[in-house]
Amino acid sequence: MLDTTCLDTTYSVETPEGIDLRAQAAGPVPRILAYAVDVFYRTLILAALGIALAFADRAGWGIWFLCSFLLEWFYPVYFEVMRGGQTPGKKAFGLMVVNDNLTPISWGASLLRNLLRFADFLPVAYAAGVICMTLGRNFQRLGDLAAGTLVVYHQPEKPHTSLPDVAPLAPPRGLQLQDQQALISLTERHADLSEARQCELANLLEPLTGKRDKEGLHYLRSVGSWLLGGK
Amino acid sequence: MELSNLAVHARLRSPWESIDLGIALARRHWWPLFLVWLLPAALLFAACHWLLPDSPNWSLFLIWWLKPAFDRLPLFIASRTLFGEAVSVLGALKQFFAQNRRDWFAWLTWRRLSATRSFDLPVTLLEQSSGAARAARIGVLHRKHASAATWLTLTGFHLETFLLMALLGLIYLFIPEQVQIDWIPLFSSGAPWFEWGINAFYLLVMAAVAPFYVVGGFCLYIGRRIELEGWDIEIQFHRLRDRHQREQKQRARQASRAPAAAQLLLLCAVAVTTAISIPPASAASAETPVQARETIDEVLAGDDFHQVEEVSGWRLKEIERKDSEFPEWLIALLEWLENRPVDSDSESDWGPFIGLLIEILLWATAAGLLAYLLWRYREPIRRSLQLRRQVEQKKAAPETLFGLDVRQSSLPADVCAEVLRLWQSGDQRASLGLLYRATLSHLIESYQFEFADHLTESECAQLVQLRQQHPAQSTGQAEAQLRPVSAALSGFVHQLTTSWQQLAYAHRAPESARVQILCDQWREAFGRDH
């Protein structure tokens, strides 16, 4: 359940089976930077190619122009379709391109969104794309809107966090999903939040737990540890 | 600062996601943010135009340098909006100097070129800290988010330039071809009005980008604080506590009603049994749902539900048996090939070996072909093995059909006598039912009919008729052994089925004479089997 009154960048799709899929739409700043990284890589490749082909005179120039054309238009397509929606630049920023139903991007959609970079480029320097991205609800540029695609954050595997050393305790009845998630979050972040702040948070639940400060915190951590599967 | 009024969803975010949230927030409130940035700056720009008409670029540089001062009002509005407090543009503009009082000199001198400007500004403006306290705070905030804040500033800077180019480019694109403009003197000699115009556009672009930059940095700061202070946890704990207290109040209300009823009951009880005085508390304890639930919880937490049983015994270990990848015979073959006496003639050395290899391949192909053929024609082969088939058939004979027991053993010795006796005693249904199931039973046993479960009565009768009409074509593999059906039997089955259906489903009993005839026919058809 998501509070719809609160502003967020979450993009959600409901499948026919009634399952809510969620992803975090990626905004203009990381996307511009990812694009810059890609441009950098492409420039490197073209420079290397230019040096290698310098000896081939006019034929070399021809090949170089062909390669630069292919690189400009099909470098993103290749990576988006064959490498899980991530060009090297997007990978560096943890972004990936997906269809707007959150399935992996298809050839057609990828070709369309990349050929329409032409429209996003207008009048110069991708101004139309940046403005469209900034104003759109899901940060889609024109090519994305036409191809029905979306750039979202690739959710990395959560690194294993160390849990506090407490004996797990069964939670009281009547905890809803979000309550349980908050308790788990408190347990997992025991090393990041200051001890005083954690006691303060634990005191909020005094009417429920009947305990204060260290004791209350210890109890909440025990419950969180139980919810995380400690037995 | 009331966290429950937070206008954004509090959760842990990566720095980039925080910036995106800032973009979304700035987009929602863009107009007021744009105006409070633009109006003071435009005022200064106009003043410069009037005072220093010959130095448009210096004027623009002055405004650019004063950006931290202009950034404060959008930040002020955004911070109020985040906690659900609306601030009007006019109200914010009146605050311009009040908001710029703290640390203005530092921000306009050595902190002007700070790469994390929009991320650090909230510390000054909202936390009102300066000096050592500020340095310590910034140190904590920067630990994880400094790089994203720097990239945000760099992106914002480049974006301003690119958007200005785009704006000028757009205007250029819309100049009709017929209008001839001599661009060279405009750029080289620097006509003041031209430069003022371009700078005015730059001012507009700065004002348009500023809300996104300022609110992006602000949300980055908020994201860091959510992470550091567990805002998401606090908000959820508040909700949980409120819900808990509401529920408790409700329960208390119910509980206060329950003992009253209990005491009323108790009064009656006391009136009836005046001898014993029951303590009211113990009577009420079982009554209230709260206390009952507590008892349930106690029982659930007790030993009865937490029994641990230890079982010990011997069992086989699951040893992973790793078979050799090559079968024994292949190794033996290779060894034999290797140890074969080598011919003295070295040229013909490979000949026999290749010959042998081809021979093996041919044999393997032949074996494979044979296996394939066996598999391909497995059905006809199985059919030709009739012995197995018949055993299966015997086994498959059904025991009940349409809810009737059709085993031979369930029938009386003299079926017809029993049928007539039942008929005369008035149990017509049992009588005709017996006759019908005796018929089915004999059809299955003596004529090897395969009545499947899904067939109806009429379909069974049709099967009998079918075999009578086409004895050779009837289904079944062992045709020669199937007993042919006479026309009389087929007719009898048809009549009996009709009579039985009439009685069983329509409750229309046949005449007694007809039952007599059916019995006679039955004797004729199956009498010899006994």
From TrEMBL, chain A:
The chain crosses the membrane at residues 32-55, 61-81. GO terms for cellular component: membrane. Residues 26-148 form the RDD domain. It is a multi-pass membrane protein. InterPro entries: RDD. Pfam families: RDD. Keywords: Membrane, Transmembrane, Transmembrane helix. It is found in: Membrane. The keyword Transmembrane helix applies. This is Uncharacterized membrane protein YckC, RDD family.
UniProtKB/TrEMBL annotation, chain B:
Keywords: Membrane, Transmembrane, Transmembrane helix. The chain crosses the membrane at residues 30-52, 72-93, 151-175, 200-223, 258-278, 353-375. The keyword Transmembrane applies. It comes from the Bacteria. This is Uncharacterized protein. The lineage of its organism: Bacteria, Pseudomonadati, Pseudomonadota, Gammaproteobacteria, Cellvibrionales.
